[in-house]
Each structure stands twice: as structure tokens, then as C-alpha cells.
Amino acid sequence: MITDTVLGEFAEPMSLLLATHDKMRRMCAVIYGLMDHLSMVGIDESAMAAAREALDFIDHCAVMHHDDEELGLFQALRELDAGLLSRSIDRLESEHRAIESIARPVCKWLEQVAAGLAAAPMRHAVEALVTRLPAHMDEEERLLYGHACLIEPARMAQLAADMHKRRSEQRVLLLDAA
Fold first, then answer.
1. pLDDT digits (tens, 9 = 90+) for 15-46
2. Which pTM value belongs to this model?
3. Which of 20, 46, 45 is nearest to 33 (CA)?
4. If you placed Cys at 51, which of 74, 76, 101, 110 could pair as Cys (CB 3.0 to 4.6 Å)?
5. Is 101 exposed, middle or buried (0-12, 13-18, 19+ CB in 10 A)?
6. Which residues neighbour 78 within 8 Å (Cβ) at sequence distance 6 or greater?
């Protein structure tokens, strides 16, 4: 049973989703800035720390965020409307796969930088990611997020509980891996 004790940050799922979008936008700026930093300064502790921060965010927060949208918000919105909204959801979900594909070589590059290795420049892949991801998030917010107010409070509470559960499971996995 879902109660009022759902942790504060999850009590408002849309706030958490929007905050994650903001963090993704900042990570895009970090990744882009890292590329410029490397071309001017080379690999140093600052570059390695920025790469680790970006990788940690991508590996944990960004993956859960897509699950929050696809398994939570998008499904709840589909329950409200099977027409135009569902077509937009289908397209935005397929863009998640395309963005993940664009991000793979960027992540490999970030891993090299985080390890202090001289990594080949990834300007094209970085520029594709830092351009496409913010545009995608803007579109999600414009086309879908505003419809969340139509979701019943009990369903929204379920979304919050599911988001909390995903993060709790992730913490357990991280602790087990340590």
C-alpha cells in the first residue's frame, strides 16, 4: 500500500523528473566543456573528475530517468489517451534508444578520460549528444509533461513509489558491488 510516507523527493514525481532534466542539461555542459578543456589543457585531475562525474550520472541517474518516464509517466499518460499523445510517446521513447546509441561512444571516451588516458577527440559524438539530448527533453516537457496534471493522485503516488523503489534497488546493487 502506498502511504503519505513516500520520501519527500519522490512525493512530487514531476518535480524529480524536471530536476533530472535540469541535471542532464548541466551534464551536457560539463561534457562539452570537458572536450574544450582537453584540447586546451590536456588530461589533468579536473578533467578526470569531470569525466567521472558525468559517467556516474549517466550510469545511474539517466538510466533510471528513462525508466521513470517509460515505465511510469508515459504508461500513465497512455492510460489517459490512446491517440495523439500515444504517438508522441512512441516517438519520444524511440528517441531514448537513439540518444542511448549516441551516448555509447561518448561514455567510452569519458571512461578513457576518467582513467587519465589520452583519448581520441570525440567532437562529433559529443556535439550530437549535447545538441540532441536537450532538444529531446524540451520536447518531452512541451508535449507530455504538462499532461501529468490529468493523472489521478493515486496513480501519481504509484509513480512516486516506483521511482523510489528503483533508486532503492540501485543503492543495494551499488553496495553489493562495493
1. 999 999 999 999 999 999 999 999 999 999 99
2. 0.86
3. 46
4. 110
5. exposed
6. 85, 86, 89
In 3D space, the residue among 95, 38, 68 whose CA is nearest the CA of residue 159 turns out to be 68
Q: What CA–CA distance (Å, rounded) separates 73 from 81?
A: 13
Counting as low any pLDDT under 70, the low residues of the chain are 1-11, 82, 170-178
Place of cell 551534464: 27
Within 13 Å, how many C-alpha atoms sit on residue 55's CB side?
17
CA distance 33 to 112: 16
- Structural contact between residues 75 and 37, judged by C-beta atoms closer than 8 angstroms: no
Per DSSP, the three-state class of 97 is: helix
